[in-house]
Input
Amino acid sequence: MSAASPTDKAVKARAAIRSGEWTGHTSGLAEGHVQGNVVILPELLANDFLRYCQRNPKPCPLLAVSEPGEALLPSLGADIDIRTDVPRYRLWRDGVLTDQPTDINNLWRSDLITFVIGCSFSFEEALLESGIPLRHIAQNRNVAMYRSNIATAPAGVFNGPMVVSMRPLKATDAIRAIQITSRFPNVHGAPVHIGNPELIGIADLAAPDYGDAVDVLPDEIPVFWACGVTPQAAITQARPEFCITHAPGAMLITDLLNHHLAI
Amino acid sequence: MSAASPTDKAVKARAAIRSGEWTGHTSGLAEGHVQGNVVILPELLANDFLRYCQRNPKPCPLLAVSEPGEALLPSLGADIDIRTDVPRYRLWRDGVLTDQPTDINNLWRSDLITFVIGCSFSFEEALLESGIPLRHIAQNRNVAMYRSNIATAPAGVFNGPMVVSMRPLKATDAIRAIQITSRFPNVHGAPVHIGNPELIGIADLAAPDYGDAVDVLPDEIPVFWACGVTPQAAITQARPEFCITHAPGAMLITDLLNHHLAI
Output
C-alpha cells in the first residue's frame, strides 16, 4: 500500500460527508487540514457581511468568498461543492433557526454567496504540536465561548458583541500560545484578552454562552481568542430573511494545510 | 549644519564618557542604539561564565565576548575601549563590591575577558514606539526587579535565581508586548511569566529586590521579563576573586541599532 497524499485525507472525508455517511462533528477528521466556518447569504446582504468581515478580521478571517450562485470553492479544494460538503447545515429565516439539513441542494439560489471563515481548529493543532495541553480537548468537550463586551465594528445590518473562546493555560504556555497564534492571522491570530474575565464583560467563566465550561486551575491564566461564532451572533441580531450556516462543530474540510497558514 | 549619522550619536556619547565628562546613567543617551550590560572576568572563570550565558540565553543574551586581554570590541563599535567607555564600573573582589571607578585602566590584566549582555532598554524603545506606555519611564523610575524562584541552569561556579523585571500592562498591551519582545531574543526576548507573581516566588510586588516599585492598576497584568541583573546575582553568589561589571544603569553604548536586533 502506498501512503495517502495529504490531500487524499480531505477528499475522502468530504466524500463521506457528501454521501451522507458522516453527519457529525469534524473535529479530528482529515487531521492537518484547514476547516472553515460557513456563512451563506443572499447577495443583497452579502455585501454588508463582506464589509463586516473586512472590519473584524480577528473574529471573521475570510478564507474564501464565492461568486454569486457559484457552489464551488476551487481555492479551498478542487472538488468542493458547498451544497453537499458540510456535514450539517443550519437554515435561518428572519434570524430564527428553522432546520438543520445535511445538504442544501433544494435550498440553493442563484443569488447566494458563500463565506468561509477560519476556525480555531487550525491553531489548536499548532498549540498541541508545541506540547501545550488544551483542557477541553483532553476532556473531549467543546471549547468554552462567551459573549464579551468587546464591540465589533458594524457594517450595514451586521453588528454585535465579539464572541471569544477561552483556554486556561499556565503562564509560560500562555506566552508561547501568544507567539504561536500570532503566526496564524487567518484563523483568529493572537488572543484578544488575557487574565481577568470581568474586564471584557464576562461575569462567570463557569457559565459559557456557547460550548462547555472547563476548570481554570490556580496556576493558570484564562486566555481569550476572537471566535468564529461572532458572525452567527451578528446574524441572529441582523435577522436576515434567509441565511445558511454550518452547524457548530460540523465544519467545511478544505484541502489547505494548517501548516501553510502560518506566516 | 548637516544631520548627524546614527553612529555619530553613539561615538559622541562614548567620547563624553571616555573623557570623564559623563559618569551617570545612560538611559536616553544615544537614542536608538543598543546598550549593554558588562561583565569582565579572568579567563579562568570566564569559561564557566560563557557556559552559564550559553545555558541561560534569556537573562544572559551575549552580544559580544572579547579575546583574553583584548580591550577593544570592534563588533560593537570601531572605537570602543572597554577600559574607559563605561560611565561607572563596579569592582568586585571575592564577590564583595570594593570600588566604583570611572575607568579601569589601572585594573586591566592580560587575562581579562569582557562579556557584553543585551539590555531591556532596546525592547523598551520598541514598546514605546508601538504606543505601549511604560509606567517606570513615565514616572522616571528604575524598573522594578525581583529575585524569582525560577532557577538558572548552573555552569561551573555560576548559579542562582533568575532576576526578573516587571512592567504592569493592560491585557491588550501585554499581548502586543509579547509579540514585540519575541522579535528581540538578543535583549531578553519574550516574557518568562505573566500574571500571579506568587507563582514565581514573588511575595510582594511593592517590595522589589532591585529598582523602584510601581503601582499595578486593577485593569493591568504584571508582565515579567528575564533581567540582565541575573548574572550579577550569580557573580555575588560565586564570589570570584576578581570581577568588574558596569554600575547599574550606566551601560556600554554600542554602535548597533536597536531596530537591527529585531528578527
Remarks:
- Chain A touches chain B at residues 171-172, 174-175, 178-179, 182, 190-196, 199, 219, 221 (CB under 8 Å).
